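dumping this here before i forget
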Amino acid sequence: MTKHSLSLALSALLLGGCVSFAPDYQRPQAPVPATLGQPGAQGAATLDQVAWRDFFADERLRQLVGLALENNRDLRVSALNIERARAQYQIQRADLFPTIGITGSGTAQRLPGDLTATGEPAISRQYSVGVGFSSYELDFFGRIRSLRDVALENYLATEEAQRSARISLVAEVANAWFTLAADRERLKLARETLESRKSSYDLTRRSFEAGVSSAQDALQARTSLESARADVATYSAQVAQDQNALRLIVGAEVSAGLLPEQLSLEVTRMAELPAGLSSELLQQRPDILQSERSLRAANANIGAARAAYFPSITLTGSAGTASASLGGLFESGSGTWSFMPQINLPIFDMGRRSANVEVAEADRDIAIAQYERAVQSAFREVADVLAERATLGERLDARGEQTAASSESLKLADIRYRSGVDSYLSVLDAQRTLYASQLELIAARAAQASNTVNLYKVFGGGWQ
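structure:
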């Protein structure tokens, strides 16, 4: 290869990829209010990104979450999707560079009509060895670089998707754990209620046999007893189902030592949120970042579609040695080289390139709408969690007072029944009211635990 040809080829390689027709990326304005939460809410100092190990207070729950992150099959699929996207990005990035290889060949051909001095048919032989590259496209107009950027953004989007999956899994494990704790408390309450109603039924039955109370009182006590027995069976099945659900989420067997005995109000060791949080925090959620990465990929794809309007230039070149005999391959004067540039510019394609640009621009507009929708959905999720959180304390306090009042009412009803002032129906009503109040108190405590877990989730695994 001459010095002039070599210089030309190197200059073309260096100039490749100097132009891009992708639009300048601008993050869309978030179509949500500037702040989150309710003004005037009490709070403490803000926190940087909170890790789940620092968020949850119970050590058993932390161990269970760690077990789920190691064994959950959905999370394993997310990790494999990242590996796949990384490989696709590496494939696309490789197109920016020439593929260089060594080739060797040998041919033998009989020439019709040619004879040797001995009268034998003449055979022509040719051997060659060379190194070079084939059909390397010079990226003058940024087509390959835009496609590389598309692959890169898709790869980064899968990483954000895995982060989102991890956060969702952490929240799912915690919610399942607290659901099991609440149902265990309900089962415990149902069993205590069953024992209490057994005692009441036995007392009422003996009173009826002694002629002190009516048959209706005994039947009403029996009805209340059977209702409690049915609740015990219902909650026993629910606890078993909760354990099955937890085992599926974790992806492995869960030892009894990691299961909750009762519902604790100490869900997290973190301080309360401060008032007036900026809605810009939502842009750090992995699902929002994933949507933005997809938008960036669609934006880069426009550059690839626009670059198709311009010529594509490909190079093929090689240098090596050739000889009619194997022994002469590396002798002086056997060197060979070739350099074959090619340019291609479609003249008429029935509007195919224009349509491709329109499709790419429409995909970009769709990605913008999806990004804005993701931001709006995230804002709604955060607003709902904070709205519920603002009333949970009052709700929990009210249920506690209701349960205390129901307990006193049952004591008074029992005294009045034993004194002959009221019928046994008033005792049954007081028992049902207390039982319902106790269940509602458990539900309120479970809602508070779930709200705390959802707070971790909607802020993307923490907040700033």
